[in-house]
Amino acid sequence: MLSDNDEISNIRQLSDFRDYWRESPSYPEENLYNIKVWYPVTVHYECADRKRNVTFETRFEAFIGSGPDDGKIDLRETRRVSVDEYHLQFLPRFQTYVHDEETHSLIITSSSKKMGGAYKVTIMPSMEKPE
User: How confident is the model at residue 65 (pLDDT cuts 50, 70, 90)?
Assistant: First the structure.
């Protein structure tokens, strides 16, 4: 479990990520003014066991605002990636979030027995970048 300051920093990183993508011409209109947002994304999962590295397309959902779910991120399962084999839900209390200001991807890192050690999840919206 991370500290309160780290959790707050993670929520800020997620908010910065959302704020950047909110300016996209293809930003889903139903996300405007909602605390739950969603995007089509490409996800690259890197694991300690390189055989488990995978890139896939899915739907990203996140809660950004006040409330008990603030900072929670869900990635939808796909045929290739299931919750039984990969972490697809992330909480700001347990993982580290970074909004990469160069690529504008969201990077989530942590370590777990399920993943065989350290893992890194890079999330890039499948939307047109803002100008």
Answer: confident
**β partners of residue 106:** 99, 123
What order do you get walking across the sheet with 89-90 strand by strand?
89-90, 73-75, 54-63, 36-47, 117-125, 106-112, 96-99
Please say if the pLDDT value at position 46 is more than 90: yes
Closest by CA to 96, choosing from 76, 117, 116, 119, is 119
pLDDT in tens, 91-116: 999 999 999 999 999 999 999 999 99
For the beta carbon of residue 44, count every other beta carbon within 10 angstroms.
15
Write the pLDDT tens digit of every residue in 6-33. 999 999 999 999 999 999 999 999 998 8
Helices (H), 4-126: 4-21
CA–CA dist 109, 5 (Å, integer): 17
